[in-house]
Amino acid sequence: YGFQAQPMGYPGGFVAPPVQNQPTMDGTIWMPIPPSIPNCPPGLEYLTQQIDQILIHQQLELLEIVTGFETNNRYELKNALGQRVYFAAEDTECLTRNCCGPSRPFTISITDNLGREVITLHRPLRCSSCCCPCCLQELEVQAPPGTTVGYVVQNWHACLPKFTIQDERKTDILKITGPCIVCRCCEDVNFEVKSVDETCAVGRISKKWSGFVQEMFTDTDNFGISFPMDLDVKMKAVMIGACFLI
């Protein structure tokens, strides 16, 4: 991870400016721009560089803390070295955010270090209650925007949060199972990612305990995603979508 990015050649003779592994004006350290990879959706090259962990930090919004008025959420996605890989921003209407709360439909745009939108997440208005099995949560992942690479679908269960990760043809690829109680004090909450037959654990999505003050007085969350390094890059993107759905 520690190498200094070198200028890369592009068709037509255009040379991209190098991105150094140094803090920017706001103190953010960006992950170096990876070279393009054949048959890889543009922008997902970041997920192929021996990455098996993504950390998602929701940014604190001062207006939301002071007034309780729900604003569009924004997130930093970092690798294990603390380098920013992506930036995610929610785009929903004011009335929708404050009336529907956590169940609101949303569109989240995920951009890379060059400001290009590389992943788009769409969640329609659905129910998350086990009492409504015909209208459970679903999220579509596009990479790049306009090209669907997978889905995250909630599965009905009487007491456990369960989800299925699917590819673009809606073929089941992975399963996600969470704990019966998803709110815990002073400890992380883990959602296990397993094979389709649920016999083998392949990863984990964890809600990190952020401290008493932040947990009690804000709704900002910190998540961690772990997956196999050799997992298909599209499925890594869908796992990021699964984290936002959770």
State the main characteristics.
alpha+beta, two-stranded antiparallel sheet, globular, Porin, disordered N terminus, twelve-stranded antiparallel β-barrel
Walk me through this protein's architecture.
The strands form two sheets. A twelve-stranded antiparallel barrel has the order 3-4-5-6-7-8-9-10-11-12-13-14. The longest helix is centred in the last third of the chain and has 13 residues, at 233-245. The protein has a single domain, classed as Porin. It has 246 residues and is of the alpha+beta class. It has four helices and 14 strands. It has helices spanning 62-67, 94-100, 212-217, 233-245, and strands spanning 8-9, 15-16, 53-58, 74-78, 84-90, 106-111, 117-123, 138-142, 148-155, 162-167, 172-177, 189-194, 201-208, 222-226. The chain starts with 7 loop residues before the first strand and ends with a helix. It is 13% helix and 32% strand. Its cofactor is Ca(2+). Its main location: membrane. Belongs to the phospholipid scramblase family.
Concise description?
By secondary structure, this protein is of the alpha+beta class. It has four helices and 14 strands. The protein has one domain: Porin (Beta Barrel), CATH 2.40.160.
Largest sheet: 12 strands, antiparallel, barrel
| Tally of separate helices | 4
What is the highest CATH level, the class? Answer: Mainly Beta
The whole-angstrom Rg is: 18 Å
Question: Any guess at the CATH architecture?
Answer: Beta Barrel
Order of helices and strands: EEEHEEHEEEEEEEEHEH
Major sheet: order of its strands?
Answer: 3-4-5-6-7-8-9-10-11-12-13-14
Percentage beta strand: 25-35%
Low-confidence stretches: 1-20, 212-219
Q: What's the multimeric state?
A: single chain
Structural class: alpha+beta
Termini, distance in Å?
29 Å
